[in-house]
């Protein structure tokens, strides 16, 4: 076979291989896109509770267990006392996610500087790991990431916390259960007006000692979400993080 014919056959072969490869990549990309779309179209609600553990946390856990619903709890380090340690271990065993809220929840201390915030947050993270044996990777700023205290220090905090393996989460639905004098009706109304806007609503509630109305309303909240076809998961399972005014 002449050199020219060999070269021609080789060129035809390479064209065939390139076409096959291109088709393979196209199919793979299409498959990935469809998978991502399926995930996005799933209706999954993320129940989150701030300001525990407290006397109400155990009641919340009992309701969640009865309903077979997992949730995420952002904890206050100072409240992780000796009598709450078994509760935290139970929460982890039941499949709930524990995250960092703050150690002291005092704005003048934690937001004094980026270093002050990070020290407070890591102190809480260490406490959670000490009690449960599990390292947490999620945190939530007290009053959210858009509060005025964070104006000049937020980016630094987020960058430094990410270096340490932590990601912050805000919310896109608020029960407003720590504002004024909430009632079951007001809590349901606040959740109802927003949750259907999202396939993945992140619902802010509180399980502090004062939030008895939240506990009383929780079964109705879960029932309503189930009626609308929502499943439930912890925040670390969400397809993307929830950052207020950023995504």
TrEMBL record:
Residues 1-19 form the signal peptide. Coiled coil: none annotated. GO terms for molecular function: hydrolase activity, acting on carbon-nitrogen (but not peptide) bonds. CDD domains: CE4_SmPgdA_like. GO terms for biological process: carbohydrate metabolic process. Residues 43-233 form the NodB homology domain. SUPFAM superfamilies: Glycoside hydrolase/deacetylase. PROSITE patterns: NODB (PS51677). Keywords: Signal. The keyword Signal applies. This is Polysaccharide deacetylase. It comes from Velocimicrobium porci.
């Amino acid at each position: 076979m002449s050199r020219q014919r060999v070269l021609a056959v080789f060129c035809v072969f390479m064209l065939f291989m390139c076409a096959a490869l291109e088709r393979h990549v196209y199919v793979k990309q299409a498959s990935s896109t469809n998978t991502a779309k399926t995930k996005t179209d799933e209706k999954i609600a993320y129940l989150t509770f701030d300001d525990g553990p407290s006397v109400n946390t155990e009641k919340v856990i009992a309701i969640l267990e009865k309903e077979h619903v997992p949730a995420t709890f952002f904890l206050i380090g100072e409240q992780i006392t000796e009598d709450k340690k078994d509760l935290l271990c139970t929460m982890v065993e039941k499949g709930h996610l524990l995250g960092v809220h703050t150690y002291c929840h005092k704005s003048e201390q934690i937001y004094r500087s980026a270093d002050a915030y990070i020290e407070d947050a890591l102190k809480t993270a260490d406490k959670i790991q000490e009690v449960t044996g599990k390292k947490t990777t999620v945190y939530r700023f007290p009053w959210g990431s858009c509060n005025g205290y964070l104006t000049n220090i937020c980016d630094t905090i987020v960058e430094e916390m990410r270096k340490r393996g932590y990601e912050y989460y805000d919310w896109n639905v608020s029960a407003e259960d720590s504002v004024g004098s909430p009632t079951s009706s007001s809590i349901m109304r606040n959740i109802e007006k927003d949750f259907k806007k999202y396939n993945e609503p992140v619902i802010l509630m509180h399980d502090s000692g004062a939030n008895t109305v939240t506990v009383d309303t929780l079964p109705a909240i879960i029932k309503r979400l189930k009626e609308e076809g929502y499943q439930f998961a912890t925040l670390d399972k969400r397809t993307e993080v929830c950052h207020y005014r950023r995504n």
